[in-house]
Amino acid sequence: MKTITITLKKKSPIALEFDELIPDKIYDWEKADFESYNIPVGNSRFPLTDFFDIEVEGSAEGPEEVKMVLDGDMGRVKYIGSEMSAGEIIVNGDADLHCGALMTGGKITVNGDAESYAGREMKGGELEITGSTREFCGCSYIGDWRGMSGGKITIHGSAGKQLGECLSGGEIYVKGNCDILAGIHMTKGFIQIDGDVTRWPGGQMKNGNILINGKLGRLLEGFALEGVVKDPEIEGKEFSGKYIKYTGDIALNGKGGLYLKAERNGDLL
Question: What's the whole-model pTM score?
Answer without folding.
Answer: 0.97
